[in-house]
Each structure stands twice: as structure tokens, then as C-alpha cells.
Amino acid sequence: VQLQASGGGLVQAGGSLRLSCAASGRTFSSYGMGWFRQAPGKEREFIAAISWSGGSTYYAIPVKGRFTISRDNGKNTVYLQMNSLKPEDTAVYYCAASKYISGTYYGAEYDYWGQGTQVTVSS
Biggest alpha carbon distance in the chain? Predict the structure, then answer.
């Protein structure tokens, strides 16, 4: 599976962005999908995950209620809608695919990673 993340950019605090992650291959629906981020000087952190069907979603506490993960298996794409953005959301955002079809919080359980897209939130 090859993953291509897009949709990052510069936005003011309080604004919104939608990230997309397009996957190659015909087995996209066989994978749980997740989003992670990494800010300069910090470790990569889990943001959100979604099960293969989209029926289950999981969020990290800092983004719960502001971010929404979704997927369209017909388009081989997973999305991250980010609302009420804060300067502390500034990071490179990565999408990832896991053979744990239910979705998982743990980066080590993801098998494929996209290249990352930069999100910068100005105050």
C-alpha cells in the first residue's frame, strides 16, 4: 500500500483544514487507518484512527471534539477534518495503514506510512 497525504497548509487559530490520504491498491478496505503528527523536537503522537468499515473511530484527548476522521473505501481515501485549530496543532501530519482492521493507537502496529503534510497554525 502506498499512501499520499495532502491538504496541509497555513491557517489562523480557530480555522479549519481537511487532510486527505489517498491509498494505492485494491485492498484499502482491508486496513485500519490512522493519523499521527510530529512537531519539531517532539515525538510522533497518535491523533486518530478508524476501522476498516469506518464504524469505529478513536481520538487522542487533545483533538477529541475538534478533529474528525472518516474514510471512503470507494475512493481509497481517509480524511482528517480539523476544526478549531490551535497553534499547538502545528506539526507534520502522517497517515498510516494497519493490518489491525479495527484501528489502533500504536504507531508500531502500522505497516505503511505516507510522506507527511505540514500543518501550521498561526496565533
Answer: 41
Q: Could you give the C-alpha distances from 97 to 4, 16, 40, 107, in angstroms and in order?
A: 11, 24, 23, 10
Q: Quick one: pLDDT band at residue 50, thresholds 50, 70, 90?
A: very high
C-alpha cell at 105: 493507537
C-alpha cell at 108: 508500531
**Which cell goes with 83?**
476544526
Per-residue pLDDT averaged across 65-92, rounded?
97
Q: Residue 35 belongs to what H/E stretch?
A: strand 32-38
Distance CA 115, CA 44 (A): 14
CA distance linking residue 41 with residue 55, whole number of Å = 34
Rounded to the nearest 5 percent, the helix, strand and coil shares of the chain are: 5, 50, 45
